[in-house]
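A further point concerns the way the authors explain their paired sequence and structure data. The central task, working out the C-alpha cells from the amino acid sequence alone, is never made concrete. I therefore recommend that a typical entry be quoted early in the introduction. An entry of this sort, consisting of the sequence and the corresponding C-alpha cells, reads as follows:
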Amino acid sequence: MGSAGEVVQAYVSTQTERLLAAVPGVRDGDDDAVHDARVATRRLRAALSVYRPVLDREVTDPVRDELAELGHVLGTARDAYVEGHALRRRLAHEDPGLVVGPIEQRIDEDRSAARLLAQDRVDAWLASARFAELVATLAQDLPPGPKASRKATAVLPRRAHRAWDRLDRALEVAAAAAAGEERDEALHEVRKAARRARYASEVAAASVGAPARRSAKRAHRVQEVLGAQHDAVTRQETLRRLAHQAELDGESTFTYGRLHALEQRAGEAAQDAAAKPLRRAADPGHRRWMG
C-alpha cells in the first residue's frame, strides 16, 4: 500500500470488521464483546478525525459524530460492569469485621441497574436505522479526500504529529492544574489525547513500520496508567453517592469511607506511576518518524 488513501481505508475496513464481529455478543450482553466494539468504534473515530484530509470529509464527519454517540453508549455499558467488578473485588479484600451494613448488596443493585439500563440503550442503538446506515457507510470504500492519492509516508506522519502535539498541549494544562478535581479532569484529557496519539500511530505504522509502533506503545502505556487513575476517581464518586443513600436510609457509612480512602490511595498511586510513561511519551526522540 503506497497511498495515504489505501492505508487509511485498510485500517477503517479492519476496524469495521471488528465492530461487526462484536455485534452479536454485544446484543447478548457479553461484556467482552462490548469492550471490543467500543475499542473498534474509538479506533474508527480517531482514524477519521486525525486523517481527515485523506477521506472525503462530507462523508466522514457525520460518520464521526455517529461513532462518538455509539462509543458513549457502549462505554456506559462497559463502565458499569467494570466498576461493579472492581468495587466488589475491593470489598472482598476487606476484613469482614470492618464491613458494616449491606455494602455488597448496594453495590450490586446500583451497578447492575446501571448495566441493564445501558444495555437497553445499546440494544436500541443497534436496532436503529442510524446504526444500519452507519454500518452500510463504513462497509464500503469511503470516497477519497484531497490527499488520498499522495504517498502514505508523505501524509500520515505529519497528521500523526498533530495528534501528538495535542497530547503535548494536554500535558502542559495538566502540569499547571491545581491538585484535586481540576487535575483529575486535566489528566483525563491527557488520557484521551494519548489514546488519539496511539491510534494515529497505529494507522501510520502500516507505512512507517517499527518507529510508529514504538510511539503507539508509549502512548498506550500513558493510556493504561491514567485509565487506572481515572477509574479510581470514578469509583470514589460512586462510593460517595452510595454512602449518601445509605445515610438517608439510616445505615452506617463507615465502610464506604474506608473504601473511598482506598480508592483515593489507588488513584494517587496511579498518578505517581504515570510520571515515567508521561516523560517517555513527551520525549521527542521517538517521534522522529513524524517529520
Observations:
- Residues 210-248 form the longest helix (39 residues).
- Residues 240 and 256 are 7 Å apart (CA to CA).
- The chain has two domains: 1-150, 152-284.
- Residues 1-150 form a domain with the CHAD domain fold (CATH 1.40.20.10).
